[in-house]
Every structure is written in C-alpha cells, then in structure tokens.
Amino acid sequence: MTVGEVYDYLNTIAPFRTQDDFDNSGLLIGSRDTEVYRIAVCLDITNDVVEECARVGAQLIVSHHPVIFNKIRSLNENSTVYRLIQHDIAAVCNHTPLDMARGGISDVMYELMGFGDPKNSPVLHQIYPDKNIGYGRIAYLDFEISADGLAETAKNVFSCKGIKYVDGGRSIKSVAVCGGAGNDEVYRCIDMGIDAIITGDVKHHAFVDAYNVGVTVIDAGHYATENIIVSKLIQKLSAKFPESEIFEPAANAELCKYI
Q: Which of 43, 96, 181, 189 is such that its CA lies 20 to 30 A from the CA of 27?
C-alpha cells in the first residue's frame, strides 16, 4: 500500500477538512506515492520516535499531534522534521479532526469512563452544528457520583501518573469529557450547568471559577486523555491494512515526570 492510501482511510475516520482554523493536520512530510510496509502510530512525533522508526524500518508515522504546528524558522540535526526527511519517513497527522470526530478522542473517553455508547451523546462545543461535530461529549448519568469517585475512575481508566481536581461540592449527574487542552470548555460547562468536566491543561483561575459555582473540574492531563486514541487507531489500521505491520513505538511515552 502507499502513504496516500493510509491518508485516504484516515480521511474517512476523521475528515481532514474539518480541522480547526489554528490546526495543521494532513500529510505533513513525504509523498502520497511512497510504499508502506511498516507504520508507527503515536501521540507525538519526537526525535526518539523518529530514531526508533528508522531503526526498525518504518516508512510512515501516523500521529495525533502535528509534527509541524508553529512556523519553522530553521532546520538542523536536532529538528524532528529534519530527521524525518533524513530517514525518508513520511508523517500523517490527524489532530483536531480526530478530537471532534465520532469515534474519536472524546467518544473513547466517554466509553472508557463507563458512560455507555457515545454515538448519540450531545457535543459539548459544536464546531460544525449541521454535522453534529465538535469538541467534547456530555454524559447525563442515571446515577450519582461524588467528585472523589469520578476523579478516581478517571485516574484509573486513563492510566494517569497523577491527577488534580477541584470538588464542586455537589453530587454529580452530568459530566463532560474533552481530551487535551480543555480549559475554555470549563467555562462552557459553567454556562451550561454541567456538574463536572474531565479534561486536561486546566489553568488555576478556571479551577477557582468552577469551584465558586459548584462545578467539579478534573485535570487528567493532556497526554493521558489523548494517548488513548493510539491503540484505537492501531486496531482500525490493522483491520484495514492487514498486510502491513502497525505498531506503537516504545518511545511513545509521556515526557513529563512526576514526583
């Protein structure tokens, strides 16, 4: 198969045309015509991931976060883009489309939390209202749970090394989930009267503002809430392209340490 065939398949799962204005998803390094026999799937393309892929002979890396996001001002041997080109490894990155798509990160979070089938769950932040596409999902529970219980569940299902949260002080019957950087979605939950949100990259003042109005905020981390998509992509790609080896690099690991 070719890089182009993999790109086209990913485009059916999370269409690249739906990416947000600030995003840079798509085929960012390489040619559509390159033949592919071994594919690495990861959250971030780091130098360690590239070097591992070069050692094992992977021709393509599929990642969630774009390897080219900010303006490139220079290229040298320490640049990940430089190393990809040096080793002739293509990169397809599917970022915000995979954040928003049905079957994407928010739906996986919803499922892992045990909230049931996310297929018909309301979208927290509609980007394309006519297509019901956007960031986050809302679960309306048929049971009540405490902030402590919800935080403990999130820590376990997302395999968090650490977690921080603020207890809004009320019993929880509605929960929003949103992978990655969901600080702004905290305020959306406040406005919508949602009892709790599980997300990542929450700022101090958002914790304070949520606490003051009784909303529980659980920061499970950017990495932990999004790395869950890697195994799902491997399953999908393996089923579609059984003739290729599709794997998660050992270097696909959280860089931050906790003490």
A: 181
Residues forming beta bridges with residue 247, ordered by sequence position: 40
- Distance separating alpha carbons of residues 234 and 200, to the nearest angstrom: 23
Place 179 in a pLDDT band, splitting at 50, 70 and 90: very high
Question: Letter for the amino acid at 52?
Answer: E
Residue count of the chain: 259
| pLDDT > 90? residue 131 | no
Rounded alpha-carbon distances, angstroms, from residue 103 to 69, 153, 187 = 24, 21, 25
Run of H or E residues at 150: helix 147-157
Q: How far is CA 250 from CA 14, 43, 56, 128, in A?
A: 25, 12, 12, 36
Do residues 175 and 128 touch, judged by C-beta distance below 8 A?
A: no
3-class DSSP assignment, residue 127: strand
Q: Backbone dihedral region of 254: left (phi > 0), alpha (psi from -120 to 50 degrees) or beta?
A: beta
